[in-house]
Design brief:
alpha/beta, Rossmann fold, Maf protein, 17 strands, ribonucleoside triphosphate phosphatase activity, Multifunctional fusion protein, dITP/XTP_pyrophosphatase
């Protein structure tokens, strides 16, 4: 998960000012940026529409397997931050609170100005955030609707930009503020003209740059920081024309190797959708057994894959295991749950096969002592069946068959198998396992499966071997 990228979304190229600061402060992190240039500006739009557009960007990013989402747009932050934070299970960071916090620290006179889009000013989000910290502050807000088009048209260094900035900020100069929040991530590209107009004694606050400092803290707090060496990867997407985007991005970020790609997000859901991620990013394990789910989650963690179990879906209807082989049962479960949940499902059917019992318990391993019995009862029956069988003839193996099924592509099942050899002991040993693990002795290790750590078990277990085989098949695809 730590190598998963941080996602940055904006209504256009303005969010690149946040990305620029991220590349400076967090050079090891992998970054994905999406600018919705096709539908800018967001400022004049109704808040409800901005929320829908923001969800479409967020859902696009979720498909990229991001570990954190930065809403690098003040208008989108004001409209959609609360709903995204309420629904997503990754950290979501907006730009308004960090900018407000920095302004409160910077002001000496208590007079703070905010320039932003019409939408942000209309929401009063900055004034509210500032007054939550100090209700004695005098806050002057001013909409600057002409700034965004100038930046997006790549005219932010032209004489016309200087004139527009000077004319727009006349009321703010008259307000006598000593601190000015640039409450739109496009505005820092106009910083030289803004500073010139406001005067050198006015402190300019770049809300985007302040946001990256908060991102850095949250990465450490949640244990998400990428500890890889070297420069991270960068991917850039725009809903507009990649050529124009690349020209601005290359100039602002001072990068020569930017490869901007067009993204069509019109078909993305404009609201929260449960686990929208595609296979390879999120899978559901067709089991409520916490031990099995944890074992699979541990293996897939290094691949950046989120794993959930059936316990997370209390309304799911159980799928009957009526097959006569491990693969038949795994296929029934994978297809049955994938169709119900509309998500990729990894189903495992595995069991213990004892040579002295002609391969039993086999597909009945989980219910060897009957449907209503537990692990202890299953183990008791196994030991009773092996009563009098000498140690040399208590050879056995665990066998696992995995089937990964996609709800929309039932013909594309990925099937993998794995096994581990051992013998059945007479006394349980170890407490780091479940099922028959405490009695399954691995001769070459001199320990039972229940005496191994999770990492050790994944290295040699039947399910670990099957998962590795599955991984190889997924990589090949």
């Amino acid at each position: 998960m730590n190598e998963a990228p941080i996602g940055f979304i904006d209504s256009g190229v303005g969010g690149l000012t946040v990305v620029k600061e991220a590349l400076r402060q967090l050079p090891h992190e992998n970054v994905v940026f999406l600018g919705d240039q096709a539908r800018l500006p967001y400022g004049p739009r109704p808040a409800e529409q901005v929320v829908r557009f923001t969800w479409q960007m967020a859902n696009f990013m979720r498909r990229k397997g991001i570990k954190m989402l930065v809403i690098a747009c003040n208008t989108a932050t004001a409209a959609a931050l609360s709903t995204l934070k309420a629904h997503l299970d990754i950290p979501v960071v907006g730009v308004i609170v960090p900018g407000s916090r920095a302004a409160v620290k910077a002001t000496q006179t208590g007079k703070i100005g905010v320039i932003a889009t019409e939408g942000t000013v209309r929401s009063d989000a900055y004034a509210k955030a500032l007054h939550r910290r100090n209700d004695q502050l005098a806050v002057t807000s001013l909409a600057a609707p002409k700034f965004v088009p100038i930046v997006e048209s790549n005219e932010y260094t032209d004489p016309i930009a200087e004139r527009v900035v000077r004319e727009t900020l006349t009321p703010m100069v008259a307000a006598g503020v000593d601190t000015l929040v640039m409450g739109c991530t496009h505005y820092p590209l106009l910083r030289p003209f803004i500073q010139q107009t406001m005067g050198e004694n006015v402190k300019l606050i770049d809300s985007g740059a302040e946001t990256v400092s908060e991102v850095s803290v949250l990465l450490d707090y949640f244990g998400l920081a990428n500890d890889q060496s070297g420069v991270g990867t960068r991917a850039f997407y725009t809903t507009g024309h990649p050529g124009m985007f690349k020209e601005i991005a290359a100039d602002w970020l001072q990068l020569d190797d930017i490869a901007a790609k067009h993204a069509d997000i019109s078909t993305e859901a404009d609201h929260y959708v449960e686990d929208i991620a595609t296979p390879g990013q999120t899978i559901v394990v067709a089991s409520s057994n916490k031990g099995k789910v944890a074992e699979i989650a541990e293996f897939f963690a290094n691949r950046g894959v989120k794993v959930r179990g059936l316990a997370d879906f209390p309304d799911v209807v159980p799928v009957d295991e009526t097959g006569t082989t491990f693969q038949e049962n795994a296929t029934l479960k994978a297809h049955g749950y994938a169709q119900q949940l509309g998500l990729p499902v990894l189903a495992d059917d595995s069991g213990l096969m004892v040579d002295a019992l002609d391969g039993a318990p086999g597909v009945f391993s989980a219910r060897y002592a009957g449907d209503a019995h537990n692990d202890a009862a299953n183990n008791a029956k196994l030991l009773a069946e092996l009563g009098g069988v000498p140690a040399a003839k208590r050879t056995a193996r665990f066998r696992s068959v995995l089937v990964l099924a996609h709800p929309d592509r039932p013909e594309d099942d990925v099937v993998a198998e794995g096994s581990v050899e051992g013998r059945i002991g007479t006394l349980p040993e170890g407490d780091n396992g479940f099922g028959y693990d405490p009695f399954f002795f691995v001769p070459e290790l001199g320990r039972t499966l229940a005496q191994l750590t999770t990492d050790e078990k994944n290295t040699i277990s039947h399910r670990g071997n099957a998962l590795r085989a599955l991984g190889q098949k997924l990589d090949a695809k």
